[in-house]
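[step 3/7] fold_predict: job queued, chain A
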Amino acid sequence: MHSKLSKHFFIALLTISVLAGCTQFAAAQTQEDLEAKEEQAIKESAALVSPSVVQIQTVGGLSNVGRLLTSTGPTTGLIVSSDGFIISSAFNFISKPASILVTLPDQRRFAAKLVANDRARMLTLLKIEAQNLTVPKAAPKNEIEVGQWSVALGRTYNTPLPSMSVGIVSALNRVWGKAIQTDTKVSPVNYGGPLININGQVLGVLVPLSSRRGSTETAGVEWYDSGIGFAIPLADVFATLDRLKAGEDLHPGLMGISFKSRDIYGVAPKIDRVRFDSPADKAGLKPGDVITNVNGKTVSRVAQVQQELGSHLAGDVVEVTVKRENESKTASVKLAEKLLPYEAGFLGVLPTRPSQTEESKGVIVRHIFKDSPAETAGLKKRDRITRFGEQDIKSLDDLYDAVSRLRPEQSATVVYLREDKENTAEVTLVTTPAAIPSDLSPEIIPDP
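[step 4/7] structure written:
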């Protein structure tokens, strides 16, 4: 009996082992099949877009731009119109080349003309004399999702298919709302090339980008092959393509405001200054206004305002709602390409440096410039300025801030103490004189 039970147990154990082995083999086979299908899908998607990916070579130009040694090797572009228009990264042309050559996938070669630049998204539009070119399909922006497959394509080698780097879409609306972020390898090899999905649709055009203000074509290039890459959605490129085709350079849209705090994430977007004759000034926005809504989206932090405005170009009109005291006001603001240079008014006083132990009771005048608004108003050495316009003055920074808010020919009331007696004077600021005084009062004011 015991022998029979052992035999049955052995047979059952053997059966289980065989079944487990079959299951593991089936799972391994399924995994291999899945990987093979993924590889095939990626290759097929690249093959679909390949006829639209071109090689670009530049000839001549600068060898250095700032501290950056410019590249002389081939790079990539993407056909965006069947009649010969090609979009690429502006980085590829920072050397200001004498000639630009484009090689199509069928090995035909053309001289290219630079038509226009999109300086907000660091793109350049080229034109070659060719017809019936293949234009890729753009992926709808609302269908792009974080985590989906993405493939970066470049055309730097003379191979049937472009070079490929596979990854995922890691974030959306990056760099103040302008770009898709990907962890594929992005570098000068594929700058200007497409970022595609596995359906053969183009997600965007690969470019180096940075969120820093005043960024140039080289900003962000230090991140190449780091797993942090950016692409401008092709749908956005198509939306402004006609303007680029007409030779119009596109620029970031400027409103002309600055905020009270440098903390862009933790405080409300309260306007500190409105630049004279700027779009914000023309729309009636004022210092002290708190922005609550931009184009229908509620905002409560400075970063959110920057995010909503970041993707807009000069000439775009945005609707801005602000809270002013207890009222809500909405204004249409037409963004500008550039702002007029700001010139602060000149008061004509030189203050003393505050003592480490001195309490903040205003700013003591050390020197009065000859024929200045301060001299005309009757201010003298040793006067202590305690108020300028609507602002109490407790430090040099307060006085500088208050005076710098007014332009030449604007007026303000100055409150000052002279021998502990409070006095007021009206001053009208002037343009800062170009001449430097031949002598200035010493830091320690001698007794009279």
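[step 5/7] annotate
The first strand starts at residue 53 and ends at 59.
Helices lie at 2-49, 174-177, 234-239, 241-245, 279-282, 302-310, 373-376, 396-404.
exit 0
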